[in-house]
């Protein structure tokens, strides 16, 4: 991190953003592993999960898309140097993210009550829990990154650091938003 | 949180300035170090310790294979109930081969090899102060360390370590009651692997980011040494394939611990029918080998890069076919993702699909052969300096040829039906990825030891180490081909139960003795390594007279690598014995204006002004040549 006294340290966000992109790639591949398991499984067994997915998943998807929009507005507010507005939008994003997490739990209990438990002799049904569960872990990580940017708005950060924090949050949050839409559509299409 | 630095900027920034004066404590220098050179050494020494452990395990099961009827009371005294009466138990034999494979493939040849040399050489050879994220780099080592500790801790539990083979195929691995090793030992194996993958990903992401974003001025992609190309493509392979292993491992954890049926169906255990229905163990094999096959290239490609560099330096010749070397690495990288099915020819795979996997597998022979011929052509008529590093690099070429040829046999679906799961496979992969990769790693250790520790390793001990290891490795693995051709299956505990296998017992005795002698030869290496860290001959800045950037950094190994500005790069790294030059090596930092007598027209890459200057210089200094 730090070098000898004569070599002072200059902040360079580019490689760090690149790291986030590569993380996005590897995470995508992990979910790709699960969805390809699902495809091969349902092709060889001739069956998918065979459920009508609970409506709550639809509401949670809407909430998550909305949170992406509010995060985008936060980024735009920062770019036009309106820190207060950025802070407000970040708080709203955080709230929507937590609402999404709550709705996912709600969806699981709806699934469970309809008789589609996680411990199931149809692996396709268990897979719904796996992918949505690991997606939720990503949401929690994303919330931490958003909080990090939020804390930044209360400190006197240099512009480049504030932009960096916001951009890292944006890359990751939009990624998990798109990831969820992919998973949801995948599960809808492969019932 | 900060990375590149250019001196004399930002003196006004108090926050950053305060960080500049920081005092290194023992903890921050040697333990939680964020300096890539120290992290490289941490990976190397941990890797060496793990390699010694895994080698010890292999000696234990070799003893069992050679003398299945004899008792060795000493074994009982330190293995306890796993070797009651001085004979290793069958369950423990399976644990030994499982953990030997796991440690060697993942902990030694992935983390020990990439972790050491990518960390050491990427910043030094591309001209960067450190990795893109030194913090992530430190985390990568400590995740690896935790993975090692958890893996080894399974030797200290009642039921023993995992024993379903390093590929942990379900249902054996998924049903805790199946064998003792599938109880807690398997759980520890899975936890350890998740940490390991996390470590690999943190490392790999850092390597790719550093190479793409933090090269010094003038270091375009086609001026990078082949080591960097190899580490770069290896890291990409890891990023694209390790997450799939995590996906598979997560499902296995749920099957084992929570009762899902991803891989399980129709299992009867004794008289009890398991409730799990509808899963398929074949799907584990698909997920596992989607990582598992790229994994063997994750193991061999850094070793190839290291050898390319060392062979060129010590032949005092440019590497033959630099571009072909890079394109063949890229070819191997891409092809490695579409060949995993060749591990599964006998799982009931559709023969047409098997045919596709067979063709893609055989195509990999092309880039592999390109690399082999290029190494041989580099050696051809070179002024070879047989340093220990050079011998090990040539050893890699030898093992890669003799092990690679049998890959063509195994890649054929029709032949594989006979040869799969026999000792032929064991012989094949121990030569082509085991021995070849470990020789590449040892070559790297001998070659870059002065860069790591500022001292040289002893040459004579290095020669002893090389020759004994080289000869014994062939004595160990070559005879195994014939066992395999005769149909002797792998993983069997003793050869005494089957009539046709008994004639191979004497061969097993030879193999075991060779393995023991090879293991003893490693003592020469270990002594040489640890002694030279403290007492070795002090090295000069550029002991091998090499061109690459790491040898322009001071021997003292300062934090940030170069005092003052990072050097600029002007040429490719392989200008050895260039015609017209007075010296037989021209470093990457030497501008063409200082080597007027040896410049070639293609050196200028179409820069007309430079070509014009060169022409004028030639007209004055080489009148005879221009007249022709």
UniProtKB/TrEMBL annotation, chain A:
GO terms for molecular function: cytochrome-c oxidase activity. One of its GO terms (cellular component) is plasma membrane. Pfam families: COX3. Keywords: Cell membrane, Membrane, Transmembrane, Transmembrane helix. Residues 1-191 form the Heme-copper oxidase subunit III family profile domain. The keyword Transmembrane helix applies. GO terms for biological process: aerobic electron transport chain. It comes from the Bacteria. The chain crosses the membrane at residues 18-41, 56-76, 88-105, 125-147, 168-189. InterPro entries: Cyt_c/ubiquinol_Oxase_su3, Cyt_c_oxidase-like_su3, Cyt_c_oxidase_su3-like_sf, Cyt_c_oxidase_su3_a-hlx. Belongs to the cytochrome c oxidase subunit 3 family. This is Cytochrome c oxidase subunit 3.
UniProtKB/TrEMBL annotation, chain B:
It is found in: Membrane. One of its GO terms (cellular component) is membrane. It holds the Pfam family COX1. Residues 1-20, 598-628 are annotated as: Disordered. It is a multi-pass membrane protein. Its main location: membrane. The keyword Transmembrane applies. Residues 7-20 have a biased composition (Basic and acidic residues). PROSITE patterns: COX1, COX1_CUB. GO terms for molecular function: cytochrome-c oxidase activity; heme binding. Residues 26-552 form the Cytochrome oxidase subunit I profile domain. GO terms for biological process: aerobic respiration; electron transport coupled proton transport; respiratory electron transport chain. Keywords: Electron transport, Heme, Iron, Membrane, Metal-binding, Respiratory chain, Transmembrane, Transmembrane helix, Transport. The chain crosses the membrane at residues 43-63, 92-114, 135-157, 186-208, 228-254, 287-307, 319-340, 352-377, 389-411, 423-449, 461-484, 504-531. Belongs to the heme-copper respiratory oxidase family. This is Cytochrome c oxidase subunit 1.
